[in-house]
Amino acid sequence: MVSSKERVSSQNFCTKHDLEAFEDQRLAPYAIKSFYATRQRNIRSEGRIHDYRTEFQRDRDRILHSRAFRRLKHKTQVFVATEGDHQRTRLTHTLEVSQMARTLCRALSLNEDLAEAIALGHDLGHTPFGHIGEEVLHGIMSGQDDLDGLLDFMTLGNPGGFKHNCQSLRVVDLLEKRYEEDGLNLTDETRIGILRHTSLPDDMTYQAFESKKFSVKGPLFLEAQVVSIADEVAQQAHDMEDGLRAGLVDLEKIERLRIMKEMIRKIHPDYHATRSRFLKQNMLVRGTIHVLLTDILVNSAKKIKEWGSREGIISSEQFYQRLNDFPSDLIEFSRKGKGLFQELKEFVYREIINSYEVNIMDGRAIHFIRNLYKAYYNNPRQLQDWVLLRYAHGRREAYLRDIPLKEVGRKIHKLQDDPVFLRLISDHIAGMTDKFAMDEYRKLYLP
């Protein structure tokens, strides 16, 4: 590693090596350093003379410029993206997770660039219409939903299930196309952080993860742990705010939660003197975020210090030697904070996620996604050209629209017996925005 005391650049700007030296100087011994980052493939120079980004900055930029990232602005978080101008979308959720993760990482002297890259990429594989879309696709792709007898899983077997974090990795490794090779060629550190920002069920079989340094079920470095918990905090805080704005829950009911009472007592003593309900809502939301992040920060800093002292970790070299034995629970709430957060989470589910209004939207989403899948499976020629071309290229077979008419029926039957084709439909639907999915449904089913 470049010494932190060296300034290796003779330029009037910071080079990649300078930035790596700054990391060595500024970040904690237990932070992931970009100097050690690995990729599946080398980065092509493409005529670049100067290199002034770290490996994780490059990951962040590749994600930001991807089409999958841009589509997040039209994907539902909880409330359908077309239902209002101020409801969260999957994109605003992603940005809030990134902000919280960077805040925690800076305070803990961890690698902000890595956390930002993971946060920006963590939901790229999310379906339209929020988590209900994920549940519908998992039902189909795990063999639980045969679409009213359409799919013969005795022949097809188990297609492998669907989980949005696995799909996010699939997007950055395979589906996004900006270079000669498939995918974005991100670092292994960013990839494992994306994959493991939420739990991995044991029955997931389709998403392989190849890395010499990291395993799917093994220890998880701190920056990835930070993104995982920031995702949870952001989700509950903004779902509460969106529920308030939508009128699904009363302000007075939220005020009775223990976390709200503590927040009002600690940081908003003049809360009850505020006459504006709008300002009170804002106080509750930002106060909740502050209380939760502060609890995480104080508790995690204590646990990290205790672990470092116990293991004698004083250098990055020592940390990397112990990377495969690293605890995966150093970034977490205190016991009290965990109780406050759990109460908030249960409240949000009971009063907002389980509400009549949200379930009406979820019911429509189930109908849309199941029937889109049915249409594409029944007649693959209803898929867009580029989807069929991707299948033909991947299978090294003839493009469906080029096949003579008398052979089309046989080819379609072959497609319908191919689990790869089922995954192709799943990929296509998962990548849709809410609007695109609804427009497709109208074209396929409405006069």
Can you describe what's shown?
- The protein is mainly alpha-helical.
- It has 2 domains: 56-375, Hypothetical protein af1432 (Orthogonal Bundle); 376-445, no CATH class.
- It contains 20 helices and no strands.
- It has helices at residues 16-26, 55-64, 67-71, 90-107, 112-121, 131-141, 153-156, 164-175, 188-195, 222-245, 251-255, 258-267, 277-311, 316-321, 335-353, 356-378, 385-395, 405-416, 419-430, 434-445.
- Helix 6 runs parallel beside helix 16 (356-378) and helix 6 (131-141) runs antiparallel to helix 19.
- The termini are far apart.
- The relative contact order is 0.12.
- Residues 1-7 have low confidence and may be disordered.
Oligomer: single chain
Structural class: mainly alpha
The domain count comes to 2
Q: State the helicity in percent bands.
A: 55-70%
Shape: globular
Radius of gyration: 24 Å
Report the mean per-residue pLDDT as an integer.
Answer: 90
Structural descriptors:
Hypothetical protein af1432, disordered N terminus, 447 residues, 0% strand, 20 helices
Can you summarize this structure?
The chain has 447 residues and is mostly helical.
Please render the helix and strand layout as text.
Blueprint: H1 16-26, H2 55-64, H3 67-71, H4 90-107, H5 112-121, H6 131-141, H7 153-156, H8 164-175, H9 188-195, H10 222-245, H11 251-255, H12 258-267, H13 277-311, H14 316-321, H15 335-353, H16 356-378, H17 385-395, H18 405-416, H19 419-430, H20 434-445
Helix pairs in contact: 2-5, 4-5, 4-10, 5-9, 5-10, 6-16, 6-19, 8-9, 9-10, 10-13, 10-15, 12-13, 16-19, 16-20
